[in-house]
Amino acid sequence: MLLLGIETSCDDTATAVVRDGVHVLSNVSTNQDEFHAKYGGIVPEIASRRHAALLSAAIDDALARAGVPLCGLDGIAVTAGPGLIGSLVVGVAAAKALAFATDLPLYAVNHLHGHLFAAFLEREQPPEYPFLALLVSGGHSQLVEVDSPVALRVIGKTRDDAAGEAFDKTARLLGLPFPGGPALEALARDGDPKAFAFPRHRADAGTLDMSFSGIKTSVRYFLESAAGKDARREDVAASFQAAIIDVLIDRVARALDANGYRALVLSGGVAANGALQSAFTALGERYGVPTFIPERRFCTDNAAMIAAAADRRAAVSRTDARTLVANPNLAFS
Ligand code: KG4
Ligand code: ZN
After folding, report:
1. Which of 15, 151, 170, 326 might form a disulfide with 147, Cβ 3.0–4.6 angstroms?
2. Average of pLDDT values for 213-217?
């Protein structure tokens, strides 16, 4: 199945053409960082206006790069939620218009399912079921048990900030530019992860839930203290990053202790973090479970992952262009 993917849930205007949910014929993405940087975060109104300005050309670009005419597609896949409503509406309206104009099937995709199925892109050997996915992005942090493409269950989640949000907020405390995650990782590379012991959230009995706001707050108090004023920012960044990674790895290990999985998947924007990737791979080796981490360009928001999820979940994601609406709070099911 040859699908056009459209992703505009946040601030990346992304389109892609993907064959069979695996082979990426084109993957186009324009980030809007330069428009949001001076505000230190994403401004929803700016994001939706940029999508409206860029999306038509991005669709043409994805088709041209893939060498596929619109009539050569088998369907159109679009992110229907969760995300920013104004941003989502731009992608959904474009996808519906294309579906009406071409009579092609339309597939509505949950953005988080997209992150999960990013692990299948450009892989000869996909993860086997059941697998456990650690999904860590700017808006979500959760552990998902995946028994089949249509049987997915959240078995642990953050109680407050998402891991990416903690990276972004702490990066701001350290005076780093937006988006904070990659900048903080770069700074941490020259730091000592053991320099400062920021608190790790311990799991309560019977739950795999996690919390990251305490780590972020303790970095803030530390930076305001006398010791913090003299501390090397590299060491603070590395110690913060180590604390986040410890919590994430602890929950994956607990899930592995409780259940047998045939594969481990790491996905979402924070999965681009090299130190997290190393810790995750080492954990998989310790448990003898193969690990799958999407290529960096498929970790952060992209449209290839939306086409991949639509393909795997075609039976449930097929929708009606007359009734599809963007849903900023679309449930994970
Ligand atoms: O999945 P994504 O592109 O968008 C959402 O769906 O949220 O994730 C973006 C998040 C941001 O918080 C960003 O700072 C974080 O992923 N991120 C990173 C890295 N690259 C992106 N966090 C830590 N290290 C990175 N290298
Ligand atoms: Zn995302």
Report:
1. 151
2. 94
